[in-house]
Amino acid sequence: MKRRHFLLTASTLAATAVAGTACTTRNSESGSGGEDYPTKDITLIVQAKAGGGSDLASRALATAMEPIIGRSIIVENRPGASGSTAMLHVKSQPADGYVIGFGPVEIAMLGSMNYDIKPADYDLLGQIMLGPGVLSVPADSPYNTLPEFVAGAKEKEVTVANSGAGSIWELTGSSLAQMTGAQIKPVPFDGGAPAVAAVLGNQVDAAASGVNEVKQNLADGKLKVLAIFHAERHPELKDVPTAKEQGVDLEIGGWGGIYAPKGLPEAVRKKLEDAIKKAVESESYQKTITASGNLVVYKDAAAFTEFASAEAERFAKLIGS
Q1: Which end of the chain has the smaller Cβ count within 10 Å, N or C?
Q2: Residues near 232 by Cβ (< 8 Å), separated by ≥ 6?
Q3: Assigned domain for 55 exists
Q4: pTM
Q5: Which SUPFAM superfamilies does its entry note (predicted)?
């Protein structure tokens, strides 16, 4: 009996030692504290289809980040449900730094639209771009300034196209209406480009969109841009005054940044933050974003977290009103 008991005990100890060694090996390989992160490729989830502004910014950042972080960054598109499909997927992943996401402005909006998504659910790692909103009208429109448009909309309801129900551009129109008393009827389309096409076809009175959707048609004289909803004039639209210059203190646009599941190890978080900052500062990234009509705007993790939280509060008031 004693010998049998000894053999069982020895066997148990040996198994425990093997399991402990295997566990230690796995921890070492995965870098449980993140010191050796990354040990494998990283996936960057994008909430939109390939070819759009979010996808373009994500791929430009991934390309610039790869030599910095030393691993491939695989961009994966998961469109659907106003971006919530991608955001909920990232939220459900392990907080190990191997799945991150491009966080559009909607990450601060969806919580006010009955989605289980808010900025505080994630580790926000840095803002990387901003696409200021603009208001455009047909070239033969009677409106030449934002005040003229608002005055006309107070007398008669106007139609303003946007990139979809619940989008930042729909909210741009409703914000303008709320601030000025203009009667604005939103007309949703499947994206900013179709919304601007509706303006070109005189199907609507105006469109709220990003700069990229209007700059070529503005240069060709096919439409007029009445205002840009940003603190400063856009470098590619220098003749277009800001809304504030015209008496409407409204700043709104389609910003984006990088986020991860909540609770990243500190070492992982720092490596990602540093790599994102260096990538945004790279010539290749800045050239791509500038060419798209967007602005290179960087905020570090702390500033981005504060900004997104403030935006969520602002949108909650606008959407709830």
Answers
A1: N
A2: 242
A3: yes
A4: 0.83
A5: Periplasmic binding protein-like II
Domain containing residue 142: 132-246
Q: What is the pLDDT of residues 117-135, one digit of tens each?
A: 999 999 999 999 999 999 9
Burial status of residue 246 (CB atoms within 10 A of its CB: 0-12, 13-18, 19 or more): middle
Q: What is the pLDDT of residue 22?
A: 41
Cis peptide before 38 (omega within 30 of 0): yes
- CA distances to 257, 264, 268, 277, 316 from 125, rounded to whole Å, are 7, 10, 11, 9, 23
Report the DSSP pairing between strands 253-261 and 73-77.
unpaired
Q: Give the whole-angstrom CA distance, residue 224 versus residue 25.
A: 64
**Secondary structure letter of residue 241 according to DSSP:** P
The CATH number linked to 224 is: 3.40.190.10
Are the beta carbons of 294 and 57 closer than 8 angstroms? Answer: yes
Closest-CA residue to 133 (of 79, 213, 245)? 213
Two structure tokens written together for 110: 């969806």
Q: Distance between CA atoms of 234 and 236, rounded to whole angstroms?
A: 5
